[in-house]
Amino acid sequence: MITVAQALDQLFALARPLEAETVPLSAAAGRVLARPVTARRDQPPFPASAMDGYAVPQATPGARFTVIGESAAGSRFDGPVGPGQAVRIFTGAPVPQGATRIVIQEDTMREGDTITLRDTLDDNPYIRPAGTDFRIGDTVAAPRLLSSRDVALLAAMNIAEVPVTRKPRVALISTGDELVMPGDTPGPDQIIASNTFGLHALLRDIGAAPRILPIARDTAASLTHAFDLVEDADLVITIGGASVGDHDLVARVAAELGMERAFHKVAMRPGKPLMSGRLRDAMMIGLPGNPVSAMVCGHVFVAPVIRAMLGLGAAPAPRRRATLTAPLEPNGKREHYMRAQLTDDGIAALDRQDSSLLSVLGAANALLVRPVDDPARAIGEQVDYLPL
Ligand SMILES: Nc1nc2c(c(=O)[nH]1)N[C@H]1C(S)=C(S)[C@@H](COP(=O)(O)OP(=O)(O)OC[C@H]3O[C@@H](n4cnc5c(N)ncnc54)[C@H](O)[C@@H]3O)O[C@H]1N2
Ligand code: MOO
């Protein structure tokens, strides 16, 4: 069996980075910027007032000015402002030529067309120079996972169409005679396909375009038929049938269809029967069927693969450190991803770790990572975890 780190390296070697496509700005959040983009304007494009008040050539306490016009956001005062003159101005408006500062209206008294400055003025000129936010040619670097904040910046730069990495198309194939879809009526020996939907949600969250294919039954013909429905997927994920039982057909059928297998079985818990390779034009990952195993492998392997396809680099899921609030038994020969609860006090593994227990996974907010042969750990020691 290979280690988790070796499996990840092999998965990254199998993953192909995807090409770019153009999307409207309103669809860019959550996508990965594929190429650097460049500001097409200065912001602000003119020296702009930061406050509502009066633009004046200079200001001394008690000075009087004649108001000669108005500059509002969207319609500037055309012309200069000279000695003894002021222009009424509003936040965001162009500062007229000749003005060196804005006196905020709270510091003025107005009578008709005359203003008098108060005896105490603050020092702030309240003028934002042209290009103070960004200038023509300033770039947003790629690759970058675009946030709502980035979208606001791109909009201000007048970038209406954004080059982003195409979403990885993922086909999800559940296998097993025992499975029915949520909402269906299961027979006495049947259960609901659950981790299929958990993985679909996870994949959408991380920027992929997942598609749930019909459940494959435990026959070579049914599984072959499911693989035939994969179409143009970049990644095919099978769920279940990965182990050694008589009905675990995935490895055999995939091999018959020509899969070049990179590995089968990883020294981890849960998730041991994981397999991967390339099949036809797609990368293939065979996940174990146990619901928690499939979801844990989703976080530990599938999410980093999707990030690599999106051009965000080949790196394991980022880990953090926390202090143990409950002791741990020694670990064995498989890297253990324990369902755990993280609080302000630290982290503790949950009591039941069986890989069929989705209720325990639902109660967890972290996977506490135990290295191979990790000795017993006491309260107060530091451990690694993956946030969920
Ligand atoms: N003799 C051995 N038996 C098993 C081994 C082993 O090494 N030797 N490994 C165990 C481990 S570890 C795991 S994990 C499981 C995984 O087996 P499979 O990938 O072949 O999964 P299945 O047998 O098809 O299913 C296991 C379990 O999960 C349920 N399942 C499957 N798909 C779904 C789904 N989409 N949604 C919800 N539940 C699903 C299935 O009904 C089974 O209960 O093998 C151990 N056995
Ligand atoms: O590896 Mo299995 O996934 O332990 O339950």
Automatic annotation (TrEMBL):
Keywords: Magnesium, Metal-binding, Molybdenum, Molybdenum cofactor biosynthesis, Transferase. It catalyses: adenylyl-molybdopterin + molybdate = Mo-molybdopterin + AMP + H(+). Its EC number is 2.10.1.1. GO terms for molecular function: metal ion binding; molybdopterin molybdotransferase activity. One of its GO terms (cellular component) is cytosol. Residues 171-308 form the MoaB/Mog domain. Its cofactor is Mg(2+). SMART domains: MoCF_biosynth. Pfam families: MoCF_biosynth (PF00994), MoeA_C (PF03454), MoeA_N (PF03453). Pathway: Cofactor biosynthesis; molybdopterin biosynthesis. Belongs to the MoeA family. PANTHER family: GEPHYRIN, MOLYBDOPTERIN BIOSYNTHESIS PROTEIN. Catalyzes the insertion of molybdate into adenylated molybdopterin with the concomitant release of AMP. This is Molybdopterin molybdenumtransferase. It comes from Maliponia aquimaris.
